[in-house]
Amino acid sequence: MATTATIKSPSKSTWSGGQAPMKASYGKLMMWFFLLSDAFTFSALLITYGVIRYSYPQYNPEIHGEVFKFSTEYWPIPDYVFDGVPFLHGMHLPLIFVSIMTFILILSSVTMVLAVEAGHRRDRKDVEKWMLWTIVGGLTFLGCQAWEWSHFITGKEEGLKGVADATKFFGANLVQNQYGPQGFADLFFFITGFHGTHVFSGVVLNFIVFYNVVVGTYDKRGHYEMVEKVGLYWHFVDLVWVFVFTFFYLI
Amino acid sequence: MSEIKTQNVHIDSHEEHHDDHAHHETFISKYIFTTDHKMIGKQFLMTGIFWALIGGALSLIFRIQLGFPEADISWMRPMLGEWITPEGRLDPEFYLALVTMHGTIMVFFVLTAGLSGTFSNFLIPLQIGARDMASGFMNMLSYWFFFASSVVMFSSLFIETGPAAGGWVVYPPLSALEQAIPGSGLGMTMWLVAMALFIVSTLLGGINYITTVINLRTEGMSFSRLPLTIWAFFITAVIGLLSFPVLFAAALLLIFDRSFGTAFYLSDIYIGGEALPQQGGSPVLYQHLFWFLGHPEVYIVIMPAFGITSEVISTNARKPIFGYRAMVGSLLGIAFLSFIVWAHHMFVSGMDPFLGSVFMLLTLVIAVPSAVKVFNYLTTLWKGNIVFTPGMLFSIGLVSLFISGGLTGIFLGNSAIDIQLHDTYFVVAHFHLVMGSAAFFGMMAGVYHWFPKMFGRMINAKLGYVHFWLTFAGVYLVFFPMHYIGIAGFPRRYYTWSSFETFSNIFQDLNAFVTIAAIITFAAQFIFLFNFFYSIYRGRRAPQNPWHSNTLEWTTPIEPGHGNWPGAIPTVYRWPYDYSKPGAADDYIPQTVPYSETPESNTDFENELAALEKESGVEEVDETKE
Do B620 and A9 touch (CB under 8 A)? Predict the structure, then answer.
């Protein structure tokens, strides 16, 4: 299998040892591999979602009645579950609020890109500014999620009649919910909660990095690679939200 | 230390740092919270040995129950207390806990942490020419998470309701409902906590192994010059990185089902006539998630053993490994296939039979890369100048066990035959040979082979031979009869079969035989233990390169300090398997010898490389020779 012996010279080939291939630092590599493994965790959870969801029938107007109503017989249509917006009580505004949340999170990814770019220029003021906006975006998303959760937990006026007795149940917890099968709320809490935990730890990491930027740690170190590393994590968390959003809200 | 100082002239700041470090070493920073990969490797080894003894002892207790169900075992009461009934029998609930803990301990704590943890840590930096792991701190954390996990798992052995008892696979609903059996209570909770910690440890370790291999190879150590040990550890770490998170997800969902009333795995369950509120979950879903880890896990266990065996067999056959690229390719093939065969554990779980046939096909395909490895081991041995060191014997033992156990895998992989054999002792025999014993033999081969590098002394070879032959014969005597017991239909995990005429009369003597063999095999391990600890302190001093091996670890001082090489890290010029090269003066040429120094044994192509070396000091080359 002897192929060509390329003449070396000062510049060496990428994989022949004695250097980090493609100049990637070990820290950045570690972050990539961690994200790879985290992606498998989320995949497992989303597959769980798929398995449980498709064990239930879809809502079908011919069988279940022309007007959609919540029932434990079939999986709810997300448009009817997530139709609340703060201060606009009683209006049917499907997915408006969650779209705003998603937009904010994606914007925070944009500001993170700008922070990384400023880091490359070693412009401390700019890094500070964009990191701060990223943190604000993350916190806003978490705040929105808190409202979304409490709205989901409190429930809607109509409620759902219990099977065993005539009492009505409002809102949702891990055991019961007014929107449909038990698994619907269980999965909603677990997966958006697991994602929210990731966002929260991302905000904490962003804050630590922001603090280090402000006190000049990275100036002293001579590079802003930490910003890049938390940036990778932040984009990943964003990307995961796109999938969570698709699974829970769109389909 | 003086040696290090003389080198100070030309060391870079990095080395100076390490030099520095050595001066301030205290007992705690050297032996306990150490960041030195060699010490961390030894920590994993010692903990692994501890767990192997516990796991082995547990198996003897239930083997006595299986072999001698009528025996009076009240003499165990001082140790097992209430788990021995007043009539002097083993408590049936505790029997279940014993098999569960034996499986968990052996698979995760001994053959994953004890094997990968020991040798990946110890060998990766030494064999690729690095001063330490990419992150020594994360490496330390990896051990201490494992230690914390061990403490939790060990404590669960002593609680009143007993440790987890739902089998090492902890299928719900048995594991999800606290009221199901005593072992599903606190013991199960502790099992889950311990496993969560264990997964964190594995991920920290794995990420470190991968980045170290990618980033810290020394000058000239291209991937095609990596020893096969490193290839194996590298690919093992990748498998672990991708499969353990899925177990993590599965365990989290199980925790919610157990403690917070969710219904991910539960549906339509009645206990004592009362319906449980959980609706809509799927227990088969858990099995899918579990086996998505569970199957790759068996390769996580066996692949480091393959790597060690490749290295030991080539060194001691004094021949280049046969088909280096095929060996790497088969590792990659096995790694890829390991992710798409998991459902062969679930042929009788209520899966679509068509899906079963797909998984059957993929499962049987694994026989191809496995056979490539076996044939390459045999062809490496063929006409070699074999040196039968204890490490070599254990490596050859691995090949033998892998063949014997692998053949039955071809039966079990057939979804139709599996209906008869599923959950019988045939399966137990199969995986104990192919993965349990084979991986254990690989681990032993590694310990015997790298003992001189670990402790600077030689381990006694004569005791090693006794240990090997007793273990080798013992393992076959234990597991071979189990095939017959399994074909007869004995189910695994059953406390007793005495109510079945056929089983109690015809096969009881075979079971008793297995038990006696197991006791002898276990006892033989104490020969190793004595030899191991005695040799650490009293063994003959090791020479620089006791096995005349080519790899880099033998170029370090006999007892390397933190940083491994006192001077500059050596440069690598060739692959690690130049044994008995025609024309060469010695029967081995270390990786650090340039081609320009071996004109007598060079091929034409290597002569070209030698010319390049001369031109520019250190050459840069695309490909190895072959």
Answer: yes
